[in-house]
Structure formats: C-alpha cells, structure tokens
Amino acid sequence: MNYLVTGGTSFVSKYTAEYFVSKGHNVTVMNRGSRPQINGVELIECDRTDCRDLFSGRHFDAVLDITAYTAEHIEGLLCSRVTFDDYILISSSAVYPETNPQPFTEEQQTGRNSVWGDYGTNKIAAEKALIASVPSAYILRPPYLYGKYNNVYREAFVFDCAEADRKFYVPRDGEWMLQFYSVNDLCRFMELILNTHPSEHIFNVGDDPISVKDWVTLCYAIAGKTPEFVSVNSDVFARRFFCFYDYEYVLDCSKMKDLLPESISLEDGLREDYEYYIKNPDSIFRKNPYIDFIDNELK
Length: 299
Hints:
This protein has 9 helices and 13 strands. It is of the alpha/beta class. The mean pLDDT is 96.
C-alpha cells in the first residue's frame, strides 16, 4: 500500500512511519525537513498549510494524519490536490468537556474542556473540518500516548527520578487515575481499520486506567527501583512538580476493544520506552523543571 503520514520526525508520527515501513508499505512523509527522516520513507518537504501543488497527481491508499491540530491543518492538506481512498485522523480525548459523565463515550457531545483549553477546541475544529470534507474518514481519540520516541517529559521524568533514587512527589494521595495507550497499539488499530473498514468511524482508544501511584511504581520497577512517595497538598499546582494535570478522566474504549481485544501490556510498552530513553537521553524536546521546583519549593 501507499501511505501518506503527516509529520514523521517525532514521537507518534515518527513511530507510525517506521511501523508501516516495517510492514513493507510505501510510506511518504510530509514535514518541513528540519529533522532526520526515518529510513525507507519518501519525503515531501513542505508546511502542511502551504503544500501548493506538491501533491498534484499523487494518490495514496490512505492518509494517516498524526499532526493536524487545527481546522487550517486539515483544509491546507485537502486543498493540495492530494487524492486518497482512506483517511485516519489522530484526534484527542481533550475534545470531551470535563463536565460530561464518565467514562466518555463516542456518542457524547464534544466541547471545551477547561483543563485542555484551546488544544481541545482546536482538535474539535479539525474533526469537524475533516468530516465536512471527508465523511468517510476515521477519527481516533486517544488518552495519553506513550512509547518509543516519546519526546514529551512524562515517563522520562519518572525514569530520571528513579535513576537518581529520588523520592517521588504526587498530587494529593496519588490514587486518582490516568489512562494510556501505546503508539504500537495505535498503529495496530490503524492497520486494522485500513484492512477491515469498520462501520463505526469515531473510536476512543486506550487501555484500562491505572492509578498515579501504580503507574509510577511500574516506571520505577522497570528501572530496577522502588519509589518512596511524598503527597503534596492540592493547593500546589500539580504541573509545577508533576508531569500530568491533576485531572482524572476515563474513556470508554469498548468499541475499540471489540475489534482489537489484545494490546501490549503497559509494562512491556514502558520497558521499550525506557530502553530507548536511556540510550537517547537527549530525545526530550524540553525537560520541564519539575525537579528544580521540588528541590526549591517542596523539600
């Protein structure tokens, strides 16, 4: 198959390009050419909002749109004269208002989430722009994504704390829930959609929720350590010292699980993430100063 992957140089889009190349497909990536490309891809170098005629005469079996964050991103690509059979957009769980009943289901109304702000509303606009132009498109709404090539300082922060034998500071009691999905399973589910064309077109995707403490304990265990927890009162803004917002939400992923019941275990996914990060400590684009805040304000 001939696939177009938007992005292709960082985290989810990089993993996606590598995954489908490894399956023997022809993969074209679209990005600005500012970072090294995955081996085996064809690069179309452009800004997705100004593709001009670079796609004129090109046809793809599928567009795997990893990097659309606004309606302008969707419209820019669709105006480039690109043609395709299938289109999959990676959206976000941030499209659900936190006031919706949980677990969030695909049938619920989307709307502004006060935690995610413009990120969520921009994703909603991207979804609407795509559906208006490509009614047959598929939309996937993941929670926190993790895995190899992650350039966001989340699990890498916990790994750093474990490697340094630091105590781990958690908001409140650390018993509230997080939800994750591995980039490997995300690619497997995209592959399944392209092979089977299910009748549903919007899917929540994700694994079962896990408590903050259990997730941190698992990250430490992968590094061969055991955490000692310190609870922080709720009047301290969690993002000053912790890698997630103090916001608990759960997606109903039953439709996804009906189609793809088997998933990589969180332990195996985090281990792959850890092994990559330890070998590539400079892979994080920006390391938030959590440790500085802990040492200067919380100890």
